[in-house]
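#struct-queue
[09:14] JT: dropping the first one here, sequence first, then the structure tokens:
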Amino acid sequence: MEENNLSSFPRNPGATLEQCQSMIHKSLLSPQVRFLMEQLEKAGCLVGDNFIKAVKCNETGIAGGYTKANLDWTKCAHHACSEIRAGHLSGDCHFKRELLRLTSLKIRGHEQECIRRRVMKSLSANPYCSGVAKAAVESVWDVCYNDTEPYDRTL
């Protein structure tokens, strides 16, 4: 993957707080989200009404994040692994979704390139990852990309 100037990405003002809360409510009806919530509960994570919520992130450019996850966000490898798994398991980089975004696509390897691009964008917003983001991604890529828990290993 070639180095991108991640600071040149346009900032999206995003949805309103009310729109985000509506999307959260709609997502909680999804079988995939219900499955994940059940798996979290089975793993001992307390999943209550406030488990997923929308908050205003000011002008940081942050589109989402976790406050209840047991991750050390000062460690770029932890951050990278979280983003790699999210990109792979969410299907957000699936060929059809990328096509709808009118993204330049290659037939082979588009999903992994998309995930790498998004992980690098996220890590570039983490002040602890300045200058080490690419190395952090490479150091955890194989393990985290292939970790499909709690889904079957057939992804």
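[09:21] JT: and here's the second one, same format:
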Amino acid sequence: MRPAFWRAATVSAVALMVTAGSALAANQYDPGATNTEIKIGNIMPYSGPASAYGVIGRVEAAYFRKVNDEGGVNGRKIDFISYDDGYSPPKTFARARKLVEDDQVLLIFNSLGTPTNTAIRPYMNEKKVPQLFVATGATKWNDSKSFPWTMGWQPNYHAEAGIYARYILKNKPNAKIGVLYQNDDYGKDYLMGLIDGLGDKAKGMIVSEQAYDVSEPTIDSEIVNLKASGADVFVDFSTPKFAAQSIRKASEIGWHPMFFLNNVSASVGSVLKPAGFDAAQGIISAAYLKDATDPEWKSDKDMKQWNAFMNKYAPDVDKSDAATVYGYAVARTMVQVLKQCGNDLTRANVMKQAANLKNFDPGMLLPGITINTSVNNFAPIRQLQLIRFKDETWQRFGPIIGGETSGA
């Protein structure tokens, strides 16, 4: 018979092995995650024709600094690595490869642009690395079957354009519509949403379609052409630089149609103020986030928290730029996903938790709008409310409108 002390030592060794095995099982990691750190990649147009959106990356970096100052996520600090791609798809692809293969990030978060994210989507899905909460509203991001590693965040462009179409049909049924759109997947998705929303009346109502390339210095000639077409409704599907130009040029040539401006360019600070508030009066858009310039939210608890965050962590950023609210809200959504991951920081679990958000409110959504996802719903936000510009801010009107679409 073995001595009692031998049996006790054997039992202790087995117990240690079981404990160690449980610890290993409790903490599961893929590249980019450890006991102390989570690496998150990001790609933004800090330069180039869409550089107005670069503030999003700056605010996200600031928010993750705040999270780290407060102890991180489940005790892990966020290492946020953000690169400039100049809104150029080939550069986006190069930056994505660097983030995944050299920097070894756990995921790529909120990279901006429809053509740019389109360029990296096959690569991200082949590598099985989350391409999470892309900063673009193209309908294609809601395609969990074909691209299970790519997910959108904001309302999709097709549905938003459909909302404008329904408003036009109801309030100006004999409209002559002129459309300005960016000549890429971003602009074409909006244009198709408008055409689909108008239905069989589209061909008779749309009298002019003017496309521009992001490399063009101005869109003045396109605006002149739209006025010359006789259009009395202007639907503007452009990015901030060109949106500001179109508002200013339309005013300069005395063209005052019913004016619709897409949500992604509805920033007071980066679009309407540079264009001139006088020229922007009466413009209609759609929103899903609270507007920091709207006095309605002055006493709002979540807006007060946002203001305190901006004052401390991003004091040099213009608060009237709607991109600041966007960056804050999407960063908070990312943190929520990481919290839900617990100690299972595998890429598969990141996607699982991203597809398991239930009535989540990052604090800056309009009342009645929440984030919901599932394995069959990769479109977290699906609702909007119409807004009209008056004086120096947006005013909401009408009900919250659902923007359901079929996905990809």
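[09:30] RK: nice, looked through the second one.
[09:31] RK: The first strand starts at residue 28 and ends at 29.
[09:31] JT: good to know. The radius of gyration is 24 Å.
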